[in-house]
Prior knowledge:
CATH architecture: Up-down Bundle
Radius of gyration: 19 Å
CATH superfamily: Glycerol uptake facilitator protein
Number of domains: 1
CATH class: Mainly Alpha
Amino acid sequence: MKEKWMSSVMAGVFISMGAMTYLAIPNTLVGSLFFAVGILLVLNLHNMLVTRVCPLMVYDRRYHWGDVAVAWAGNGIGTLIAAAAVQGTRFKETIREPLTRISETKLADSPLSLFILAVFCGFFVAFAVLIGARYEKGSFAQIFYVWLFITAFVFCGFEHIVADMFYLSCCWLQYGIDGLEALKVLALVTAGNLAGGMFIAWAVRSLDQKGDSAGIDRKYAGTGRK
């Protein structure tokens, strides 16, 4: 259990690093490209990021709901640690303007919009996790596909729960935003990410099982066996 908590906290820190890079780069596309660094760290070190744990729970059952809860809480602790560390540096001035803009947009958005955008994010991250797992760790193919999916959801402005934890933690510590409103945003984004990730994992698993069954049927058909 100790290892799971440590893994979850580190995942929160890694995603915070990607979010910091995104905020520090004025160009949205370039920032989106570099945000993926955090996800690549998580996937290659097998950290318990909640949006990684959830689809794998459905796809191959290596995790369960208790792991999802630990990942969510640990990720939140990691982002809060990172946000608190930023407050003691001049870097907080570097990210002040984009951080304020992004956080105000999230806090002013409607519940339905937040949920749907989070579902789309869950789709992209689940694809990155499941497709990335099919290639050798650190291979060009794995890095390419993960980078592609992560860059896409960040550039589109879809809602990722752990990134939002970092953004809103920074604003809470720096500006004293309403904690209850921030928690409402996080609850909606969590629900959307989990729904999107679980759906994609279920769909991919179902297609894989059908593909395996079809392959077995062709094998027996070719040998005349039943």
